[in-house]
Specification:
Elements lengths: L2 E3 L1 H5 L8 H9 L4 E4 H13 L4 H15 L4 E2 L3 H13 L7 H12 L3 E3 L3 H4 L7 E2 L3
Parallel strand pairs: 1-2, 1-4, 2-3, 4-5
Helix pairs in contact: 3-4, 5-6
């Protein structure tokens, strides 16, 4: 594994006009990407919040068939929790969103580059490799 995808990157292919550069990168690195359990939670929660519809069915099918079936889902485990706690303490005066910390922690402990469109949300984490493919 080389990259950990943030929710906004994982969801981009569902847009009416997905970013073509991102789609190219996803295809190029398809065997080198993973997601965190936190990102999986966010996309499942997002689907559950949609009213029953064809859109919801399409989103659920994409996340089940294209994502869960092909990408590793890495856990927020003891090592990630420790790193996250240390970073929260260090950043206590400007603490990032808890779920962003969880995602960052999974990337950091697995030595993966976090791919996100929200670079500013992760910039304060110490030693975290970040890329924006959009």
């Amino acid at each position: 594994m080389r990259y950990l995808l943030d929710t906004n990157v994982l969801s981009e292919p569902l847009r009416k006009r997905p970013h073509p550069g991102l789609l190219e990168k996803l295809a190029q690195f398809q065997c080198e990407i993973a997601i965190s359990a936190t990102v999986w939670h966010e996309v499942i929660f997002g689907c559950q919040m949609l009213p029953p519809s064809k859109k919801r069915q399409a989103f659920e099918a994409y996340f089940q068939d294209a994502v869960a079936a092909s990408l590793p889902i890495l856990p927020y485990d003891e090592l990630a929790a420790r790193w996250h706690a240390e970073e929260r303490a260090r950043l206590r005066h400007r603490t990032p969103a808890f779920r962003d910390g969880q995602i960052a922690a999974v990337a950091k402990v697995h030595k993966l580059t976090l791919v996100t469109a929200n670079v500013a949300d992760f910039r304060s984490f110490d030693g975290l490799a970040i890329e924006n493919w959009m």
